[in-house]
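Course assignment 3, question 2. Fill in each field.
Student: A.L.
Task: Predict the tertiary structure for the chain below.
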Amino acid sequence: MNRRLILQLSSATGSAVLGLMAYKGVRWRFQSNTGTVFADNKAVDVEREVDNEIESELTLKQVQIFFRHGARTPLKTIPNVEQANYEVRLFLAGVPHTLYNYTLRDLTGGGARPESSLEKHYRKHTLKGGAYIGQLTCLGQDQTYMLGRRIRRRYLDKFGLISDQYDPDSILPHSTNTQRTIDSLRCVVAGIYGAVHLKKAGNVVLYTQDIGKEYLFPNGHHCDFLKKLTHKTLTNYGNIPGVKEERLKLEQVLGIDSSLDPKEQVCMVDVRDDIVCRKSHGFQVPEKLREFEEIVERYAVGMVVYANTGTDGKLREEVVKLAMGRSLFMVIQKIEGAVKGEKGPKMMLYSCHDTSLIPLLVAMGIYDGKWPPFAADIAIELYEDKKGEHWVKVQYLGEDMTERGFGSPVVSVSQMKSALSKYMVDNKRHKELCGATFPAQLQAPSDLNLPEGSLLPDHQETKEESAEADEKAERPAGM
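Answer field:
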């Protein structure tokens, strides 16, 4: 079967990539005024072969991987619905091929793991079956182990970036300070090296840090602006025209009258969380909720995107800076360090959350509008060509991504830095922005087809509503 491929190339990368496209059996011609490459080929997958040819001409120098934890127990349960039975011995037992001894250290000071206020919160809430909320399950352990196996196949077996013998100088495993992300990191590392080898190595170190210093998720603990935005989203998104009507229908089915007690208002994010956890672990979704799954998904995604990236325009830029701007700054710092030949790990693993990945995807212009699944990953790869020039490629869920404004997944370091610069902030600037005056009024989300200039509703909160929203606003995931 004949195939015809059209590859759009940016002007800056076109000449470099074209030099790699003299692939035997393929006829190439370059249309200079459009920057378009045409290829005719027979009975081969041209895109994959060209991709492999490009990679064969480049040397991988570094990779930074942000990944969401695996499947977990829910953070919230749906009111007036029987809970799923998360029996501890069936759902939370350690999966043998992920288990080995490791030391958990403070990233900044090298001491013992800092205390986790989030874990204290989780352990106050026990589900049916005895499990705590927000804990990595056996399924989640397997999901992140399999992610580790995929990482091994690409970066050890294919590229030889790091040795198959564990070396603490070649890999930096960093997790947020929640047990589910720490356990997920353990499983990913097990997938890369194998638990048997890691048991023999005996010096495995994983890192975390105090929540006040953490930059791997939108951290409202010490950022008043972010906390207020999440608070406003939680208390007002459900009152947006269109959303409100669907919320009231759902509440009626659940036997809830939030007009009598506003703090009983159903949160679409909480409902989605319970549903997704049930379905992931083989539990049936309660029949009365099945007709609402699609609408819950839509508005839950809308809420989490609004709370962690704002809406279009200046607010989006500022919120993404606050949410993950320090992580983006770190990514570019590490890339530039590698380009300069500075010594450091070749593989960085960042175990984080859904709310970490969404702002990163938005900043790169590759967000698909969907909630990142359990164990989703973003890989930022740094390459060097034979001329000593450096290039960056981003993968999401194991697939090459073409960032906003570029015609190829392979871009120069300067292009990557330029594309992300408006979202990048160092610690000093982040602190300044966190103390900025919060807007008196917020634009409503732009994806709900509301009249232009519509504002986010702002109702008078009760003390109970305000306290619950504040508590949720300090969580790194699920709001």
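Instructor remarks: The chain has two domains: 2-57, 59-479. The two ends are 50 Å apart (CA to CA).
Grade: pending
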